[in-house]
Here is the input.
Amino acid sequence: MKIFIYILMALSLGLVVYNLTKLDFDHLLGKDSSVAVIGILAGLCAILMLGILLISKKIAAKTKR
Here is the structure.
């Protein structure tokens, strides 16, 4: 499960990097840039939630002992 979470985090990071390349810094709220901003935010949210999941799994393992 831990490896799967790390793979998902890497894919989310790849999504963020890809959308950063599609971002137009001159028109951040333009048509294509708004999609890129939403993709970046979605990727960052996924990384954050997966990080919380990893931490909660570690806490659960320590409380079982």
The mean pLDDT is 93. Helices lie at 2-22, 31-64.
